[in-house]
Amino acid sequence: MHILTNYQHHTNDNSPINIDIVNLSVYYGKFRALAEINLQVHEKQITAIIGPSGCGKSTLLRSFNRMNDLTPSAHTEGEIRLDGQDINATGIDVVDIRRRIGMVFQRPNPFPKSIYDNVAYGPRLYGVHRRSDLDGIVENSLRQAALWDEIKDKLHQSGLSISGGQQQRLCIARALAVEPDVILMDEPASALDPISTLRIEELMHDLVKNYTIIIVTHNMQQAARVSDYTAMMMIDEQRAGNIIEYGKTDVIFTNPKDKRTEDYVTGRFG
Amino acid sequence: MTHFKELITRNLSARSRRRKATNAIILSLTGLVTLLALIPLFWIVGYVILRGGRSINPALFTQLPRPMGVEGGGVLHAIEGTLIITILAASFAIPPGVLAAFYATRNPNTPLGIILRFSTDVLSGVPSIVIGLFAYAVMVKPMGHYSGLAGGVALAILMLPTIIRTTEEMLKLVPQNLREGSLALGAPEWKTSMSVLLPAAANGVITGFLLAIARAAGETAPLLFTALGNERFDVGMILRSGVQAGQSVWQIIGRIVNQPVDSLPLTLWKYAQQPFPERVEQSWAVAFVLIFFVLLINIAARLWIESRKRRLQG
């Protein structure tokens, strides 16, 4: 298949499990949005979550850094083990979870601050205040986000003054600045033009050498191009989200076991 | 052409003519009424400029009042008083107002949130003289004397609902994903509110502050029972004597806010009813100064917001 091309990097079957989800169910009030999810996310690999609208992809993604806590009616059953430790266990600090698991949103959301202050926001939260330290972190994060060369002369301009694609890479740099292990991306390119999208995808390919990436995407080609593993989600009869198939991306896209996965990835529905 | 089509098209052109005529009538009516509504505005401003402009002179801004019936003198005491009372009021009302607005935006449907919304509505409808009477009871009575401080408290209560409501509305307009972006970095809710949401809403919030301040600066009734008025109020003298006596900054500030003080609207009200023509003239001049004081606040706000917009959009 021609869409399985350029930067599929070498998937390592032996790469350790970074996040292990065991029987995860998420409820909004009485409504069960996710039912008995089991998923093993491999370290330093890109895992794509695909599926039709409303199947719970974002809910699942937002479980990883406990963003669902912000919805008062939401509650979670089952376990999400980050390096063996359940992130919902009592005594676990949500701040620590969110430092270790960064997030990039669908729409670029730079803060109304300078580019520098956007990137330095996270480190400052964690007590880094020395100018020289911050300078280093800011440059390093922007370099990792492939943005440094474009904006190194305007670090003190507003984060809103740059293009949408640059804003999204700024948001990635901002997430990288607190040294996370995992980066969650919720349709990170869906609000961007094709060229900016390509740059984000190239960037993901570079970042996965050092970070575990989980991406929700509606774009089948994107999932095929960038990810190593793909989880296919679907809603069941009770309208709760399930993972119906999970495996290596090339297998999911070329030789799916489930008929529904095949229909979806070939564009017959969804 | 069928019979029906003919009927319909004939009616159409008749309708069209009628519609255009109605449109013209309504348009000219609304225009006329708009003009009518503008008349008092221009009349008031124009008249105040004409009458007050005549008595504007440097002494008005630099000198204290002369005894009644004596020509000359100024209203420096009232200008100082207005500044003091408004600064006090703003610093009493803005911090709790902003915090309450944060609470209301985050918890709109909790009992406290509902009570807060309801009471700001009620408070904004309370006549300002009642607020003055309240400040008299809780400040002036226990302290045993009138003071600028009591006036500041009265105006702060008056400003509070405006500040809470506008800040709340502006915070609601901040996109939800900015908040999530900050929380996803591990920032606590208060930090997110103070360093992301508030700056994002700053333009509207500051405009709200200034509107509230401008409104409070023009109030007379709440000051009648609180600041009272004081023609011998002289900040310069308090400063000089304070420095000579080696008093600390806080002691001096204490002396400034602890005595009865005049404000521009209060002076206007008192001067206008005095039987001395030069005082009546001065009250027109005070009206003129008051209008420009409020205008200045508005212009400063616009300039500030424009420059901020340019900085943010690059």
Quick structural gist:
With 270 residues, chain A is α/β, with parallel strands linked by helices. Chain A contains 10 helices and 10 strands. Chain B is mainly alpha-helical.
Helices and strands, with pairings:
The complex is a heterodimer of chains A (270) and B (314).
Chain A: E1 17-28, E2 31-42, E3 46-50, H1 57-64, E4 74-82, E5 85-86, H2 94-100, E6 101-104, H3 115-125, H4 131-144, H5 148-151, H6 164-176, E7 182-186, H7 194-207, E8 212-216, H8 220-226, E9 229-235, E10 241-248, H9 249-254, H10 259-265
Parallel strand pairs in A: 3-8, 3-9, 6-7, 7-8
Antiparallel strand pairs in A: 1-2, 1-4, 4-5, 9-10
Chain B: H1 3-54, H2 58-62, H3 76-106, H4 111-125, H5 128-143, H6 148-173, H7 176-184, H8 189-200, H9 202-217, H10 221-224, H11 235-244, H12 249-257, H13 264-272, H14 277-313
Helix pairs in contact in B: 1-14, 3-4, 3-6, 3-9, 3-13, 4-6, 5-6, 6-9, 7-8, 9-14, 11-12, 13-14
Which short descriptors sum up this protein?
heterodimer, A: 270 residues, alpha/beta, 10 helices, 34% helix, globular, B: 314 residues, mainly alpha, MetI-like fold, 80% helix
